Known about the structure:
The complex is a heterodimer.
Chain A: H1 8-16, H2 20-42, H3 45-61, H4 73-91, H5 116-133, H6 137-147, H7 153-160, H8 164-181, H9 185-188
Helix pairs in contact in A: 1-2, 2-3, 2-4, 3-4, 6-8, 7-8
Chain B: H1 15-20, H2 26-38, H3 40-55, H4 67-87, H5 95-103, E1 106-107, H6 110-125, E2 130-138, E3 142-151, E4 154-163, E5 166-172
Antiparallel strand pairs in B: 1-5, 2-3, 3-4, 4-5
Amino acid sequence: MAFAQLADEDLMQLVRRGDAAAFEAVYDRHSTAAFSLAYRMTGTRNTAEDVVQEAFLSLWRSGARYDRARGSVRTWVLGIVHNRAIDALRRSVVRERGQVSDEGIEDRLEAPQRTEQEVGRRDEAREIREAVEELPAEQSRVIELAYYGGFTHTEIAAMLETPIGTVKGRMRLGLQKMRSQLSSPEVLS
Amino acid sequence: MSNPEHELDCEQTLDAAVYVLGALEEHEAQAYAEHLNDCVTCSAEVSKLQVSSDSLALAVPQMLAPVNLRARIMSTVHAEAELLKAAGHEADRPIRARARWRWRLVPVAASAAALAVGLFVGAVAINGGSTKTRVVHSAQASRVITAAVTSPGHRATAVLHEQGGQSLLEVANLPAPPHGRIY
Lengths: 189, 183
């Protein structure tokens, strides 16, 4: 079967029935984004690999939980990776989170731009980064500590010596502003 | 300029941003997820903010995943796919869900229930062994049929209880099915 022609959602139907080849196609499409997110969050290659392995095996074993009404397969995959990375961070003793370490930096090869779709994704990533950079520093700080660092709102409030209510408010305002800046349907899909 | 605080109809709406960023403690996140089932305001807020939060995953510098990671994952997936193929694609459903039909009292015709015992005997006899079936108690309204299969190292039993048009089949000590087969 020519999996390359199938949409992610159709591949997931096959994965649900235990089709390993369809799963491979899903992995090949999303492993770069998954590994990149895991590495950004955990800061080490080994932990990032563990996170991606856990996430994809969980996806393989629970493909039935994917609901296309709730978003794209890519968003779903990255959501699983994000949750697993948070679990890994909160399990770890080291509390220096949200920082990419220098470990294995020589191996940090940026994924090449091979297809039109990948070029589009790179533009999309740049647009999102710009949206975050345009936020007031206090808003982008709490968002990054929470999303990439895996810190809880109470931990962030303690770190920044700021009331919890203020931290929550900054998160909300920051995400609202990002939404208004990311107006293109491609980015929001 | 409007104050965003005034837009909040539910006092927990401010938690929506914390929730979508994954910054609630685990027990708080579970409680909030339950709250979302009942609160339209918070649900709408989560849907709105989730888009921004999800986009953060796409903003990181892209790195190729190691080749050996792919090999590791696929090795596990192919092994599990083989098992699943041998057992049938419904075989990985939760045991409780699969087992329920076996033990629940269901209204079936007596002949169908007797057939179930027959199938059991047939299935176990595949492994080679002697069978013995007897009616322990028989009355118009209820009866109990037992079947035993003895093979080297195994003595499997099946007991069929029939009462009031309902039947309960109990099986015990089944040997492992032949390779590639399931009961």
